[in-house]
């Protein structure tokens, strides 16, 4: 591993921790970094373990703010989405997977952009049973193939008008459960080897540091301006993957 690669992975690990306790949309940058500097299949397993570490911190601090009613509507549809994602991973090659991740991130960024001009009846639509099922399936597929379900959940929760701490608590419990469910799929697909475990052990302290920084800055974040910056970074990261 070159010094440049190590530095990029270190930055990605810091971002994962920060995203889990502050702004989830930032995690897409880490996904793009991992897929850019590592074999794409290996990157999905390596980043999954780091995401789970970040999830543990987020659940520890925000579990009391989770909206269990929202989670009950979403969870039943996640498993079919995970299964579809696992089938997709088994069928495509590394190049197709990398580009699919990039395209998926672009789509998720576009959906986030729609939120800036969402119609007045968005909350009514997002509250429907069909929207909950669609969000669950899309989250399962996106997280299994690219660890990129954060943007799907962001779209759903923001459209629900969820305030910041409720948003963080609901997302923390949702992704902790979903990411744990993904581990058997990832092991079965051969995405987690000894090298993955070694890299996770080396990068885990940086995830914890990023989470610590996120916890101490979330109250002072200018949400609107920061979301715009995250959206722009997501688009740039996705373009790198698609055009590489």
Could you explain the architecture of this structure?
InterPro entries: TM_pro_TauE-like, TSUP. Its main location: membrane. Belongs to the 4-toluene sulfonate uptake permease (TSUP) (TC 2.A.102) family. It comes from Intrasporangium oryzae NRRL B-24470. The chain crosses the membrane at residues 6-37, 44-63, 75-92, 101-119, 131-159, 171-194, 200-218. There is one protein chain. By secondary structure, this protein is mainly α. The protein has one domain (3-243). Helices cover 82% and strands 0% of the residues. It contains twelve helices and no strands. It has helices at residues 3-21, 27-37, 40-62, 68-74, 78-91, 94-115, 122-126, 129-146, 150-159, 164-188, 194-217, 223-243. Helix 2 (27-37) runs antiparallel to helix 3 (40-62), helix 3 (40-62) packs antiparallel against helix 10 and helix 8 packs antiparallel against helix 9. The radius of gyration is 16 Å and the shape is globular. 46% of the residues are buried.
What attributes characterize this protein structure?
single chain; 244 residues
């Amino acid at each position: 591993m070159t010094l440049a690669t190590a530095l990029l992975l270190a930055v990605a690990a810091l971002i994962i921790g920060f995203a889990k306790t502050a702004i989830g949309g930032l995690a897409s940058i880490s996904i793009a970094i991992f897929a850019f500097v590592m074999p794409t299949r290996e990157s999905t397993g390596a980043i999954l373990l780091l995401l789970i570490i970040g999830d543990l911190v987020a659940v520890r601090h925000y579990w009391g703010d989770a909206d269990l009613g929202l989670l009950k509507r979403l969870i039943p549809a996640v498993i079919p989405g995970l299964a579809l994602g696992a089938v997709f991973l088994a069928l495509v090659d590394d190049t197709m997977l990398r580009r699919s991740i990039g395209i998926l991130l672009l789509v998720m960024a576009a959906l986030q952009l729609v939120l800036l001009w969402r119609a007045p009846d968005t909350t009514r639509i997002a509250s429907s049973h069909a929207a909950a099922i669609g969000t669950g399936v899309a989250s399962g597929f996106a997280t299994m193939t690219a660890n990129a379900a954060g943007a799907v959940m962001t779209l759903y929760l923001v459209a629900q008008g969820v305030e910041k701490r409720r948003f963080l608590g609901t997302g923390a419990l949702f992704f902790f459960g979903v990411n744990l469910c993904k581990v058997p799929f990832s092991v079965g697909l051969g995405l987690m080897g000894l090298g993955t475990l070694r890299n996770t052990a080396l990068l885990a302290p940086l995830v914890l540091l990023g989470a610590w920084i996120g916890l101490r800055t979330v109250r002072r974040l200018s949400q609107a301006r920061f979301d715009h910056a995250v959206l722009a970074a997501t688009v740039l990261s996705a373009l790198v993957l698609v055009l590489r």
